[in-house]
């Protein structure tokens, strides 16, 4: 059994209504303002949780992190990056959304996480050593981390920041996922400034019986 974790992008124009299929999603506003049915207005650099179908109106660039039990391949044009996770679609899951800022010269300790997630770079430039590979991350790019692979993030710009959506076990609700790789790494400073948007246990809605 699988679910899909996806980073998506939609550009809303005045007068256009966007209707999204049922999912648990973090709606992050990259620029502009969006009116979300059931939530009200969301402004730039804000992020809200919405479970179920979504109706959006406004003028904005909208980034989402969506966890879906059912999905339609017709929405692939919205997908920036997606990963399938081996989980029971009926089981509760934590959707956590946050923003992480890197000050000048920041380098993270070698670390993993207690669950998978997708990150997407807002601005700046990062070097991400994930396992045996090193990636240069530019603005707008997204990347997936399993949580099991060792990671070192290095800021290559005066300042960088990414937003992140994570799909976690319910036992991690309210708990940090960061795991230093060993004792030597554990004493190193994190070097980044995280800002939590929300951390909620959800049950995934079904689009099909």
Helical proportion? under 10%
Q: What's the total number of strands?
A: 15
Biggest sheet: strands, sense, closure? 5 strands, antiparallel
Major beta sheet, strand line-up: 3-2-4-1-5
| Average pLDDT rating | 94
Terminus-to-terminus distance: 15 Å
Question: Order of helices and strands, N to C?
Answer: EEEEEEEEEEEEEEHE
Question: Ranges with pLDDT <50 over ≥5 residues?
Answer: none
Number of helical segments? 1
Task: Give the C-alpha Rg.
Answer: 17 Å
Assess the beta-strand content as a share of residues: over 45%
Shape: globular
Helix/strand structural class: mainly beta
Record keyword descriptors for this entry.
209 residues, 5-stranded antiparallel sheet, mainly beta
Secondary structure blueprint with pairings:
Blueprint: E1 2-12, E2 17-36, E3 40-42, E4 47-68, E5 79-86, E6 93-102, E7 111-113, E8 117-123, E9 126-130, E10 133-137, E11 142-145, E12 151-155, E13 160-168, E14 178-180, H1 183-186, E15 193-202
Antiparallel strand pairs: 1-4, 1-5, 2-3, 2-4, 6-13, 6-15, 7-14, 8-11, 8-13, 9-10, 9-12
3D structure, described in words:
The structure is a single chain. This protein has one helix at about 185; strands at about 1-10, 15-35, 40, 45-70, 80-85, 95-100, 110-115, 115-125, 125-130, 135, 140-145, 150-155, 160-170, 180, 195-200. It is mainly beta and about 210 residues long. Strands 3-2-4-1-5 form a five-stranded antiparallel beta sheet, with no helix packed on it. Strands 11-8-13-6-15 form a five-stranded antiparallel beta sheet, with no helix packed on it. A three-stranded antiparallel beta sheet has the order 10-9-12, with no helix packed on it. The chain is about 0% helix and about 60% strand. It is globular and about 50 Å long. The chain is built from one helix and 15 strands. The two termini are about 15 Å apart. The longest helix is centred in the last third of the chain and has 4 residues, at about 185.
């Amino acid at each position: 059994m699988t679910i899909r974790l996806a980073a998506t992008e939609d550009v809303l124009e005045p007068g256009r209504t966007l209707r999204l299929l049922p999912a648990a999603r973090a709606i992050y506003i990259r620029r502009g303002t969006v009116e979300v049915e059931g939530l009200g207005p969301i402004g730039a650099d804000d992020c809200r949780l919405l479970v179920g179908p979504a109706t959006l109106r406004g003028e904005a660039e909208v980034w989402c992190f969506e966890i879906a039990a059912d999905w339609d391949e017709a929405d692939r044009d919205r997908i920036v990056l997606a990963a399938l996770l081996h989980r029971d679609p009926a089981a509760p899951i934590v959707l956590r959304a946050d923003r992480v800022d890197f000050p000048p010269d920041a380098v993270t300790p070698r670390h993993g996480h207690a669950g998978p997630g997708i990150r997407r770079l807002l601005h700046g430039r990062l070097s991400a050593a994930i396992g045996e590979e090193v990636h240069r991350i530019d603005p707008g790019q997204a990347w997936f981390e399993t949580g099991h692979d060792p990671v070192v993030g290095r800021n290559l710009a005066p300042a960088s920041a990414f937003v992140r959506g994570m799909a976690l076990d319910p036992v991690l609700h309210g708990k940090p996922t960061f795991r230093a790789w060993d004792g030597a790494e554990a004493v190193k400073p994190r070097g980044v400034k995280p800002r939590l948007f929300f951390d909620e246990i959800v049950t995934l809605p079904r689009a099909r019986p």
